Amino acid sequence: MSNYGLRKRVMVTGGAGFLGSHLCERLLGDGHDVLCVDNFFTGTRDNILPLLENPHFEVIRHDVTFPLYVEVDEIYNLACPASPVHYQADPVQTTKTCVHGTINMLGLAKRVKAKILQASTSEVYGDPAEHPQTESYWGNVNPIGPRSCYDEGKRCAETLFFDYRRQHGLRIKVARIFNTYGPRMHPNDGRVVSNFIVQALSARPITIYGDGLQTRSFCYVSDLVDGLIRLMDTPDDFAGPVNLGNPVEFTIGELATRVVALSASGSAIEYKSLPVDDPRQRKPDIALAEAKLSWRPSVGLEAGLADTIAYFKALLARDPAASGRR
Ligand code: NAD
Ligand code: UDP
Ligand code: UDP
To answer: CA-to-CA distance for 201 and 66, rounded, in angstroms?
Structure first.
C-alpha cells in the first residue's frame, strides 16, 4: 500500500540525466511521489535543481551496481551512460551497470512486486541489415568492438528482463529508444545534436564524421517521455519490446545544415573519420507503439531543434566552459 494508497511511488534510476530528469518532472506533474536514484556519472544536480523543492521528490546518490533496498510501486530503469564518449570511458563499468545494475533493479522489483520498465536502445539492432527496424529483427551487433559494452550490455539487460518475467512472473516493460534529443543533453557527451549545436553557437566548425550520408531519426524528449509513460501504463500482458522514436529519417549532413541555419551560425563544415562500427542507417518502425500505446511523436525536428538551441544558448551564456573550450 503506497502512501495510504493516495500517490504512486515511482523510482527513476538515472533520474538526474537527460531523459531521467524530464521523466521525473513529468511524473511529479502527474501527481506521483518520485525517487530519483543516480550516481551522477553523467547526470547533474543542475538537471533536477527545480525539482528539489518539491516535497514529493527525493534523490539518492547511489550506484545501481550495488544493491538497493527501498519500497516503490514502479521502476523506470534508465541508469546507464548513453553516449559513445561516456559509455566507452569505462567500458567495464558500463557493462556492470547494464548487467549487475539491472539484476539489482529486477531483484528489487521482485521483492516489492513493482512494475519495472527498461530503457533499452536501438543499439540492440547494431548496424542493422533490415531497414526500418521492427522489434522482431534480432540485430547485427559486434560482440567485441568498442561499442559492445553498451550494445551487448543492453541486450543482456533485455534477456534478464524477459527471464525475470518467465521465471518469476515479474511485470516488465522494455522500450527500445531511438536517438532522442532536447534540453539538458550533456554539452560535451559527443552526441551529434549537442555537438553540432554547441559548435554552431561557439562559431567552431561542425564536425561531420564520415561522408555525412549515414542516417538517424531524431525524437524530441517530450515525445519520448510520453511514450515511456504510456508503455508503463499498458496492461500487464504487454511487455514489449517496443520501439520508441521518431520515424522521420535525416542524413547527418542534413542535420548539420539545419542546425547551422537555425542557429544563424557562420560555422563551416569539417569532415572527420567515421568511428568504428558506426551504424549506417537507423529508423524505427513504430507500428507496434502506435497500436499498443496509441503513440506517435508530435514534435518535428525544426521545433525541437529551436528549443534545444535556446537551451544551449542560455547554458553557454551562463557557463562558457560548457562549450568544451577551456
Ligand atoms: P544520460 O547520460 O544523460 O543519463 C544517464 C544517467 O544515468 C545519468 O544521470 C548517470 O549519472 C546515471 N548513471 C549512469 N551509471 C549509473 C549507475 N551505475 N548508477 C546510477 N546511476 C547511473 O543519458 P540519457 O540520454 O538520459 O539516457 C538515459 C537512458 O536512456 C540510458 O539507459 C540510455 O541507454 C537510454 N537511451 C537513451 C537514448 C538517447 O538518445 N538519449 C537512446 C537510447 C537509449
Ligand atoms: N536486490 C536489491 N534490492 C532488493 C532485492 C534484491 O538490490 O530489494 C538485489 C540483490 O542484491 C540481488 C539481486 O537484487 O543480488 C537479485 O535479486 P534476486 O532476488 O533476483 O536474486 P538472489 O538474491 O536470489 O540472487
Ligand atoms: N556524428 C557526427 N559528428 C559528431 C557527432 C556524431 O557526424 O560530432 C555522427 C556519428 O558518427 C553518427 C551520428 O552522428 O553517425 C549519430 O551519432 P550519436 O553519437 O549522436 O548517436 P549514435 O551513433 O549512438 O546513434
So the answer is: 40
* Separation CA 252–CA 193 (nearest Å): 9
Residue 174 pLDDT greater than 90, yes or no: yes
Residue with cell 551522477: 40
Q: Whose CA is nearest to atom 3 of ligand 3?
A: 208
260 CA from centroid of ligand 1 (Å): 27
With a CB cutoff of 8 Å and minimum separation 6, the contacts of 24 are 12, 15, 34, 36, 48, 51, 57
Residue of 104, 105, 167 with the most ligand 2 atoms within 8 Å of its CB, for mutation? 104
Percent of all residues in the chain with a pLDDT value above 90, rounded to a whole number: 90
pLDDT band of 4, cuts 50, 70, 90: low
Exposure class string for 101-127: b at 16+ Cβ within 10 A, else e: bbbbbbebbeeeebbbbbbbbbbbbbb
- pLDDT tens digit string along 264-290? 888 999 999 998 888 888 899 999 999
Least confident of 75-84, 171-180, 204-213, 263-272: 263-272
Q: Are 133 and 125 in contact (CB under 8 A)?
A: yes
The whole-number pLDDT of residue 326 equals 36
